Amino acid sequence: MGALxxxxxxxxxxxxxxxxxxxxPGRVNLIGEHTDYNDGFVMPFALPHVxxxxxxxxxxxxxxxxxxxxxxAPVELRVDDLAPESDRNWTGxxxxxxxxxxxxxxxxxxxxxxxxxxxxxxAGLSSSxxxxxxxxxxxxxxxxxxxxxxxxxxxxxxxxxxxxxxxTGIMDQTASACCESGHALFLDxxxxxxxxxxxxxxxxxxRLLVVDTRVQHAHSGGEYGRRRAGCEKGAALxxxxxxxxxxxxxxxxxxxxxxxEEEVARLVRHVVTENGxxxxxxxxxxxxxxxxxxxxxxxxxxxxxxxxxxxxPELDLVVDTALASGAxxxxxxxxxxxxxxxxxxxxxxxxxxxxxxxQSFRDAGHGTPRVFEAVPSxxxxxxx
Length: 384
Ligand code: GLA
Hints:
alpha+beta; 4-stranded antiparallel β-sheet
């Protein structure tokens, strides 16, 4: 649905003109997986897929939320009544943002919101971060709060952690708020310092495919929390604030200290090697050598599969098939247990690769995956 149509939807729904239109994208993560809640490095880029929000402010304490993707009338809430973990529906994300802004002392007195999204849901492509960030950006503008992208990302993460009750890191919201077109975002999640890394695949004759397996295994939420708790246990056992503090050169000593803690040791090995991979990838990209990142992406997948244990047969099948069909590198992206994989390939290999992946899913009796090209796109912005 185009922005104009969403705008018309607002007028029909609320019988008034909106004050503006905003968009915030979904993301894929190139490298640096399950490192963000360990104060480590990540490198996401924004997708062209966005959540659009058409919004008008209100001064009577009423918050009305509607999505073109969900049939029915707007959900009506009172900003004074918003309370953590009170809303298990999609409306918990935007309501959580209003709650987080107010909790931080910003006077947000209500809004009428109409949304529509082209970000695939349940695909590990951060549709919830897009939803949070677009609402945060709209309210930031309408209430003249003057918050920067990284500050909005922090508030959105708080909405997700506390209001929705999902213990996620800061990557997705920062990606949606801060990415720039044609670039990947190298983010240090410890202090949120950022570098925009030029990532022009087409100029190099390359493509990056996203393969959405269209499966999301039911236990993913609980397993995410378990991995996070295991990492925190590892940091505590090793006497550091976060696993980020274990340098790559200190890995063997750390593993020796964790003798008898086999599960924690595996988690630690993934996080430490993954931070190392993120640093290698940024160095290669900054020297203009995109092709050489392929094997590092594939190494990252093996580590997520064997050490962190967050892959699944469908994701492994995408990676194995892509590599067997000539891809330069491939890995799962996002939290895992379903969702999407990314594949780096020569442009000329894309048609055959896509066919091979689709055929492998048919042969294995899986549903048809959704394959599309990911072009590094703009972060959250005002459209009108
Ligand atoms: C999900 C979370 C992120 C991050 C990734 C794994 O996308 O929302 O914060 O932890 O998983 O890298």
